[in-house]
Amino acid sequence: QVQLVESGGGLVQPGGSLRLSCAASGSIFSFYNIGWYRQAPGRQRELVAAITRGGNTNYADSVKGRFTISRDNAKNTMYLQMNSLKPEDTAVYYCTTWSRSDDYWGQGTQVTVSS
Predict the structure, then answer these.
(1) Residue 6, H or E segment
(2) Which of 1, 34, 43, 107 is deepest in the core (most CB within 10 A)?
(3) Is the Cα torsion angle 106, 46, 55, 67 positive or negative in sign?
(4) pLDDT tens-digit map of 59-74
(5) How far apart are the first and last CA of the chain?
(6) What does the pLDDT read at residue 27?
(7) Contact yes or no for 9/109 (Cβ under 8 A)
(8) pLDDT in tens, 36-59
(9) How far is CA 106 from CA 5, 20, 50, in A?
(10) Mean pLDDT of 2-16
(11) Is 22 helix (H, G, I), strand (E, B) or coil?
Protein backbone atom coordinates (compact mmCIF):
# COMPACT_ATOMS: atom_id res chain seq x y z
CA GLN A 1 0.00 0.00 0.00
CA VAL A 2 1.44 3.33 -1.07
CA GLN A 3 1.04 6.31 1.23
CA LEU A 4 1.25 9.91 0.07
CA VAL A 5 1.95 12.70 2.55
CA GLU A 6 1.49 16.32 1.53
CA SER A 7 3.04 19.40 3.09
CA GLY A 8 3.54 23.07 2.34
CA GLY A 9 0.03 24.46 2.52
CA GLY A 10 -0.88 27.55 4.49
CA LEU A 11 -2.09 31.12 4.39
CA VAL A 12 -0.59 33.47 1.81
CA GLN A 13 -1.47 36.91 0.53
CA PRO A 14 -2.66 37.45 -3.04
CA GLY A 15 0.32 37.55 -5.38
CA GLY A 16 2.37 35.35 -3.10
CA SER A 17 3.86 31.90 -3.65
CA LEU A 18 3.74 28.48 -2.04
CA ARG A 19 5.33 25.16 -2.86
CA LEU A 20 3.45 21.99 -2.05
CA SER A 21 5.30 18.73 -1.60
CA CYS A 22 4.02 15.17 -1.72
CA ALA A 23 6.22 12.35 -0.47
CA ALA A 24 5.48 8.75 -1.39
CA SER A 25 6.28 5.75 0.78
CA GLY A 26 7.76 3.87 -2.16
CA SER A 27 9.42 4.33 -5.53
CA ILE A 28 6.24 4.81 -7.50
CA PHE A 29 6.42 8.13 -9.25
CA SER A 30 8.76 6.94 -11.98
CA PHE A 31 6.22 4.29 -12.98
CA TYR A 32 2.89 6.06 -12.45
CA ASN A 33 1.17 9.20 -13.61
CA ILE A 34 1.17 11.94 -10.97
CA GLY A 35 -1.01 14.94 -10.37
CA TRP A 36 -2.50 17.56 -8.10
CA TYR A 37 -6.20 18.15 -7.62
CA ARG A 38 -7.99 20.75 -5.56
CA GLN A 39 -11.41 21.14 -4.03
CA ALA A 40 -12.91 24.43 -2.90
CA PRO A 41 -15.95 24.56 -0.58
CA GLY A 42 -19.13 23.76 -2.46
CA ARG A 43 -17.26 22.80 -5.62
CA GLN A 44 -16.22 19.57 -7.26
CA ARG A 45 -12.66 18.34 -7.08
CA GLU A 46 -10.76 19.51 -10.15
CA LEU A 47 -7.48 18.63 -11.79
CA VAL A 48 -4.85 21.32 -11.36
CA ALA A 49 -1.79 19.77 -13.00
CA ALA A 50 -0.49 16.37 -14.01
CA ILE A 51 2.56 14.61 -15.43
CA THR A 52 2.05 11.38 -17.30
CA ARG A 53 4.38 8.45 -16.91
CA GLY A 54 5.83 9.44 -20.29
CA GLY A 55 6.61 12.95 -19.07
CA ASN A 56 3.82 14.95 -20.69
CA THR A 57 2.42 17.73 -18.54
CA ASN A 58 -0.96 19.41 -18.56
CA TYR A 59 -2.49 22.20 -16.51
CA ALA A 60 -5.90 23.61 -15.84
CA ASP A 61 -6.41 26.80 -17.85
CA SER A 62 -6.88 28.74 -14.63
CA VAL A 63 -3.33 27.99 -13.43
CA LYS A 64 -1.33 27.95 -16.67
CA GLY A 65 1.71 30.19 -16.43
CA ARG A 66 1.44 30.40 -12.64
CA PHE A 67 1.77 26.80 -11.37
CA THR A 68 4.46 24.25 -12.14
CA ILE A 69 4.31 20.54 -11.38
CA SER A 70 7.51 18.55 -11.02
CA ARG A 71 8.84 15.34 -9.52
CA ASP A 72 12.07 14.05 -8.07
CA ASN A 73 12.08 10.30 -8.55
CA ALA A 74 15.20 9.86 -6.43
CA LYS A 75 13.39 11.42 -3.45
CA ASN A 76 10.00 9.85 -4.26
CA THR A 77 8.56 13.34 -4.05
CA MET A 78 6.40 15.49 -6.29
CA TYR A 79 5.91 19.23 -6.08
CA LEU A 80 3.53 21.97 -7.07
CA GLN A 81 5.08 25.41 -7.26
CA MET A 82 2.34 28.01 -7.09
CA ASN A 83 3.13 31.63 -7.97
CA SER A 84 0.97 34.73 -8.33
CA LEU A 85 -1.67 33.17 -6.12
CA LYS A 86 -5.21 34.47 -6.27
CA PRO A 87 -8.07 34.22 -3.76
CA GLU A 88 -9.81 31.82 -6.14
CA ASP A 89 -6.92 29.38 -5.68
CA THR A 90 -8.12 28.81 -2.12
CA ALA A 91 -8.89 25.10 -1.73
CA VAL A 92 -7.74 21.83 -0.26
CA TYR A 93 -5.03 20.45 -2.52
CA TYR A 94 -4.56 16.71 -2.98
CA CYS A 95 -1.72 14.85 -4.61
CA THR A 96 -2.44 11.63 -6.43
CA THR A 97 -0.67 8.96 -8.41
CA TRP A 98 -2.36 6.45 -10.62
CA SER A 99 -1.98 3.68 -13.15
CA ARG A 100 -4.50 1.70 -15.17
CA SER A 101 -5.26 -0.55 -12.23
CA ASP A 102 -5.04 1.59 -9.09
CA ASP A 103 -4.69 5.02 -7.65
CA TYR A 104 -3.50 6.61 -4.42
CA TRP A 105 -4.34 9.93 -2.76
CA GLY A 106 -2.82 12.11 -0.11
CA GLN A 107 -4.82 13.45 2.82
CA GLY A 108 -4.99 16.98 1.45
CA THR A 109 -3.43 20.27 2.49
CA GLN A 110 -5.25 23.57 2.88
CA VAL A 111 -4.17 26.55 0.81
CA THR A 112 -5.78 29.87 1.69
CA VAL A 113 -5.10 33.01 -0.33
CA SER A 114 -6.32 36.06 1.51
CA SER A 115 -5.22 39.51 2.57
Answers:
(1) strand 4-7
(2) 34
(3) negative
(4) 999 999 999 999 998 9
(5) 40
(6) 80
(7) yes
(8) 999 999 999 999 999 998 889 999
(9) 5, 12, 15
(10) 96
(11) strand
